[in-house]
Amino acid sequence: MGRGRLRIHLGAAPGVGKTYAMLAEAHRRAERGTDCVIAFAQPHGRPRTEALLEGLEQIPYVERAHGRAVVAEMDLDAVLARRPRVALVDELAHTNAPGSRNAKRWQDVEELLAAGIDVLSTVNIQHLESLGDVVESITGVREPETVPDEVVRRADQVELVDMTPEALRRRMAHGNIHQPDEVDAALSNYFRPGNLTALRELALLWVADRVDAHLQRYRSEHQVSAIWGSRERIVVGLTGGPEGRTLIRRAARLAEKGAGGELLAVYISRSDGLTAASPKELAEQRTLAEDLGGSFHHVVGDDIPAALLAFARGANATQLVLGSSRRRTWQYVFGPGVGATVARDSGPDLDVHIVTHEEVARGRGLPGARGARLGRSRRAWGWAVGVGGPAVLAVLLDVVDLGLANDMLLFLTLTVAAALLGGLWPALASAAAGSLLLNYFHTPPLHTWSVADPRNIIAILIFVGVGASVASVVDLAARRTHQAARLRAESEILSFLAGNVLRGETGLEDLLERVRETFGMESAALLERAGDVEPWTCAGHAGRGRPVGRPEDADVEVPVGDHLALALTGRVPPAEDRRVLGAFAAQAAVVLDRRRLREQADRALALAEGNRIRTALLAAVSHDLRTPLAGIKAAVTSLRSADVEWSPADRAELLKGIEDGADRLDHLVGNLLDMSRLRTGTVTPLIREIDLDEVVPMALGGVPEAGVALDVPEALPMVAVDPGLLERAMANVIENAVKYSPAGLPVLVAASAHADRVEVRVVDRGPGVPDEAKDRIFEPFQRHGDAPRGAGVGLGLAVARGFAEVMGGTLNAEDTPGGGLTMTLTLRAAAKHREPVPAGPGAPPAPAEPERQPS
């Protein structure tokens, strides 16, 4: 059986109706005879949603302990054993309770899909991992539960469940989302119109981008060249001149006017020179385009108008922005120019904007513009002047007699003009034709091919020699200039590659895309194989279509060693491009090696960290666990001994030793387990509002009363925390402070409110910690200074900081004035004591888990 299909109902905010839409879709499929079961659905007490649960088979949930609560989770094994055709799994970003097979629910869904089971699921836009910072800037809340974007992008279908902010707020006001006592807080916090509007825009744009990607793939697969104006996509054509910045800004303003507008800047270079513009200017224009939210593309094409239109149609552009021509008036005799040609050939589906600028009619003046080899149109003009010019001149001079010397100078002028325009061969043809016409029409005897005066023979030979010499010099200059321009372009490319090697900036796919664009190829792929007889595999690919299976199947093959090759499809480039292609291929091999070395280094780092943790754990077991165990065993052995009659006081002392050793073991094992949960990301806080004076005294259970002084005012605002995690974090911090505080100087635990935060400060008068070690003391298995073995394994502060951070707080160390160390624990104040910002992801604070958001 193949892989199952995933359909996701995506919403902008809780309450838009994702779960309702999912259940309705399941009923439609069930009516068609499809085997549908509910693997997990959360109706949140909404009557209309609960009504849709009827008529669908529901797999019983499994209950798991989560802190002090018992939560219901999807029974993955039961669903796999049942093997339905379609499984409904609500809340894709949910974090599973400890003890589950997978940490996240989307990982459970991956197992169902791999087993061939289709899945219907739901997710909110704020749960997408890449949008976490954006959502936090809008709502003021960092979403703790996320799902990788790629999981949602790989879905076979994504259905947007949409609702206007006004309608959603009416649903909230009518009690269809939260309980009546929570409505006012929700409407003034998370469900404010501005928040909902921004989240809705995020959801719409995300779905629109995914639809656009599907459209581009469809157009590529079906080779659709016509422009479909489904969205505004603006292409701006650049020449590399200073007017490009004006064009980019104008195109950006056009893109902003259309919803979802996209800006693409493109520079077309000729295939014989790679680039003819100022590299510095192009780099600045690339930066400007990217800063304005666009992208920059470098395309090769000898026919610039055709290449520009091909790029625009390939990108499905709706508008094309070009600058007014920089040609001078007399230069229009050579043709209409790029702008006029593009406007003429663009067709009715592509709008062309000609933008004026300060460089209009000032001439090209581009660096290297004279460095290209003589073009086709220029050679055509050279042949016309070299062949047709002498004939026209001969007819004119037959009417007006200027003398042989003047006639020869005029014919020589035509030869020089043909050389300047067309190069060597048109000039030689002009010299030959001119000499023959001079002989026939202007050298006595006239209208014969003979020459009476030997001096005229010498003059004609000099004429031919001068014409040939001028033509050869012009042609040689054109070739040398072309070679210089090409070498300059190659040096720029090689400099770019060398810079990327040093900086490590370009990824393999980015490099292959640059190869494809630079040389005008359809696709570029880096192929490799393990041995001479092993099959080829694709290490990286860019461009349209599937990569070729073997290097010999490509249009261009550039080997890199014995088992690596760069394969290009689309056209066969000239031989002189092979050198630059070889540099690109070598760079691609370096990038591939660097990526693999980085992966190996990451794995080695993870292994080294694991080895460090295991080594520290073994050291802890060898002493910190053995010491209390030895004390317990000795006390128990003494009590069981029949040889000694223990007094009641001695017996009480031995029992107290057993109790102290067991407490120490319990504390140590608890810290080890807590650190393992923090390392694996399975700590999910159950946030609720509570007074600090209810938690802090409970954290003093193992500390002598005389060792701590409390200053926690009753008027402090409530805090939004997980009481169990806060108690454990406070206990570890206070225990550490008491351990290092001198006898007779109690540790001060004081609390105060600051804006929307509450600070708890644990102040001791011990030896303190130097600044360079203040962060290190929060790392696992770190004991500052010469702390004795019996002082613990160095996990207490690491666990405390970890618990503080998962609750949205911080724990930092600073110096105590007069000596000692102060631990500052910063917590969030409860919502009703703060400015109207949401206190939890998607809902006002409530005793429920944060992942149980309404759908």
TrEMBL record:
Domain of life: Bacteria
Transmembrane stretches, start-end: 380-397, 409-437, 457-478
SMART domains associated with the record: HATPase_c, HisKA
A GO molecular-function annotation: phosphorelay sensor kinase activity
PANTHER family: SENSOR PROTEIN KDPD
EC number: 2.7.13.3
Organism from which the protein derives: Streptomyces pilosus
Protein name: histidine kinase
CDD domains: HATPase, HisKA
Stretches with biased composition (Pro residues): 838-848
